[in-house]
Design brief:
alpha/beta, Inosine-uridine Nucleoside N-ribohydrolase, Chain A, four-stranded mixed β-sheet
C-alpha cells in the first residue's frame, strides 16, 4: 500500500527531499555532539537558583558542563556562594551511580566540582575593567579558547558581569581576529537584566548571540512562563504539593536539596530548557520554539514596562542598539492542546502571549523532570523512560501547492514496552505560512496522517510537530519536527 502511495505521490509531482516515502532510513543517525554549557548563577539570592540547579543536574548527561560560576546580581550585590553549588553537586554525586542505570553519560561529581568557580563579590559594571579579573572570568576565557569548534552556551541566572569581564579582557588582550573568533562561539541567555553589565555586553559586542527579555521589569519576560499560570496551563504541576510529591520527598539527596518556592518556581530554568535534546528543541533556532520558549530576532523599539518586581536601585533601562533574540507570542489553538483522545473536547485555550511559548509544554517538561528524579532512587524496571519517535520520511519535505503528502511516525518505539499515543499538530508561529492547515477529515492522533498542502503563491514553510507520549508513570513525551516547504505549482 505504501509503495502504491509512493508511486502516486511521485506521479502527482510531489518533491520528496531524500529517501523513498514510507521506507525507514536504513542508515542509523549519528549521535549529535553534546552541547557545551557554562552557567553563571547568583545562587542564594533566591531559592530558585538551587531549584534550577537540581533540574539541570538531572540532565547532566545531555551536555558537557564547562563551568558553574557563582556570581552577584541586583538581588545579591556583595556576595557569591559557590559553597551552595558544591553542596548540591555533592548530593548529585550520591545519586549519580543510580542515574547511570537509566542512561549513560552522567559525569562524576568530582568532574563537575572541578569546574565550579566564583566571580567577584561586586555588583555589575563595578566589577568590570582593569584589576577586576576573577577565577570565574579567567575560566570563561580558558573555556572559550579550547580548541573546540562547538558553541559555548552561557545561561545567566543572575548578573553577567563575570562574563562581561572576560569579554573586556579578550577585547584588550587579543587581536581583533582572535577576539572575533571567541565572540562567535558564545550563545548567551540572560534571565532579564539583573545588573547593568548585560546591556553593556549587548551594546559593546554586537556580534555576540544573545537571548534576553531586556530590562528590569520581569513581567515582560518570556521566562516568566515557567512559574505563571492561566486557566488551561496546568498549574497543578508547579504547585507546592506536586513538587513535594514528585521532586522533594522520597527522591534521595538531590530531592532533599530542592528548596520550597519563595518568589517563583525555577525562574532560571528556561535558560537551559531549549538545550535538552528532546526532538523539539533546536538551540541554534530560538524562533523554532521549544520547552524554554520561543524567541524572535529583532531590535526592540520601546522600553519594557516597569512591573511589581522592579526595584528603586535597578539601573535605568536603555533602548537596544542592535537586534537580539527576544520576546514573541504564541497562540495555543485547540489543535495543539494535549487531549486523551481526538474526540475529547480540548481545555480552554490560554490567551496569546509570550508566556504561552513555555506554558504549552508544561505538562511534558514537568513529567520529564519527575521521571528523572525517580531515576535518582529507582531501578530501571521500576521507573519510566521516554519513547523514541521515528519517521518514515525525512525531517524536511518539499511539496507542491495543493498536493497530498503524509506525516508518518512508523518505527517509533518505547524502551519500557509501553503503549504510546501520537499527536500531530502544526506549530504555525514557527513557520512562514500564515494560515492553519487542517488535518480533517482525518484524526490528528494517528501515527500516519494524510495532509494536503495549502495553496501558496510563494515558497512557504510549515512546521509540523509529532508528539509521542507513553502511558508509563509519569507519562513522558518526545517529539519530531517536520518542516514542510510548500512551493507554487
Amino acid at each position: 500500500m505504501l509503495t502504491l502511495l509512493h508511486s502516486c505521490l511521485l506521479a502527482s509531482g510531489i518533491l520528496l527531499s531524500s529517501m523513498a516515502y514510507g521506507q525507514a532510513n536504513p542508515a542509523q543517525p549519528k549521535p549529535e555532539p553534546r552541547t557545551r554549557v557554562l552557567v553563571l548563577t547568583d545562587i542564594e539570592a533566591d531559592p530558585d537558583d538551587s531549584q534550577s540547579l537540581v533540574r539541570f543536574l538531572t540532565y547532566a548527561n545531555k551536555w558537557d558542563i564547562e563551568g558553574l560560576v557563582a556570581t552577584t546580581s541586583i538581588h545579591q550585590k556583595q556576595r557569591v556562594a559557590p559553597e551552595t553549588i558544591h553542596q548540591i553537586v555533592d548530593a548529585y554525586g550520591k545519586v549519580q551511580p543510580n542515574l547511570l542505570k537509566h542512561e549513560p553519560g552522567y559525569p562524576t561529581a568530582q568532574a563537575i566540582k572541578a569546574v565550579i568557580k566564583k566571580g567577584l563579590p561586586v555588583y555589575g559594571m563595578g566589577g568590570v575593567g582593569e584589576g577586576h579579573d576573577s577565577e570565574g572570568s579567567e575560566w570563561i576565557i580558558k573555556v572559550l579558547e579550547k580548541p573546540d569548534t562547538r558553541p559555548l552556551w552561557v545561561p545567566v541566572w543572575g548578573g553577567p558581569n563575570t562574563l562581561a569581564q572576560a569579554l573586556w579582557k579578550i577585547q584588550k588582550t587579543r587581536s581583533a581576529e582572535q577576539a572575533e573568533k571567541l565572540y562567535r562561539k558564545l550563545r548567551v541567555y540572560t534571565i532579564s537584566d539583573q545588573d547593568d553589565s548585560g546591556p553593556w555586553i549587548r551594546k559593546t559586542f554586537p556580534g555576540v548571540f544573545f537571548i534576553c527579555s531586556p530590562g528590569y521589569g520581569y513581567e515582560a519576560a518570556t521566562w516568566r512562563g515557567i512559574n505563571t499560570t492561566e486557566k488551561g496551563t496546568h498549574p497543578d504541576v508547579i504547585s507546592s504539593d506536586w513538587l513535594a510529591q514528585h521532586i522533594q520527598q522520597g527522591h534521595g539527596p538531590m530531592g532533599a536539596m530542592y528548596p520550597d518556592v519563595a518568589y517563583g518556581m525555577e525562574g532560571d530554568t528556561p535558560s537551559f530548557m531549549n538545550l535538552i535534546p528532546n526532538g523539539l528543541n533546536n538551540p541554534e533556532h530560538p524562533d523554532f520554539g521549544g520547552w524554554g520558549g520561543r524567541y524572535r530576532l529583532y531590535q526592540p523599539t520601546s522600553l519594557p514596562p516597569k512591573g511589581r518586581f522592579s526595584r528603586p536601585d535597578f539601573p535605568a533601562d536603555e533602548l537596544e542598539t542592535r537586534p537580539i533574540w527576544t520576546n514573541t507570542e504564541d497562540s495555543l489553538y485547540a489543535g495543539a492542546l494535549v487531549r486523551k483522545s481526538f474526540m475529547e473536547a480540548p481545555e480552554s485555550t490560554p490567551p496569546k502571549s509570550i508566556y504561552t511559548t513555555i506554558w504549552r509544554w508544561r505538562q511534558d517538561f514537568q513529567n520529564d523532570f519527575a521521571a528523572r528524579m525517580d531515576w535518582c532512587t529507582k531501578s530501571y524496571q521500576a521507573a519510566n523512560h521516554p519513547p523514541k519517535p521515528a519517521l518514515a520520511h525525512p525531517t524536511s519535505l518539499t511539496v507542491r501547492s495543493g498536493e497530498p503528502f503524509h506525516l508518518n511516525a512508523a518505527g517509533t518505539t518505547d524502551p519500557d514496552g509501553d503503549s504510546m499515543s501520537y499527536l500531530w499538530f502544526q506549530y504555525p508561529e514557527a513557520g512562514t505560512y500564515p494560515g492553519l492547515v487542517s488535518f480533517r477529515p482525518y484524526a490528528s492522533n494517528l501515527y500516519d496522517v494524510p495532509v494536503t498542502a495549502p495553496t501558496v503563491t510563494s515558497p512557504q514553510t510549515i512546521h509540523f510537530i509529532l508528539r509521542v507520549t507513553d502511558k508509563g508513570t509519569p507519562a513522558l513525551s518526545r517529539y519530531k519536527r517536520v518542516i514542510v516547504t510548500v512551493v507554487p505549482k
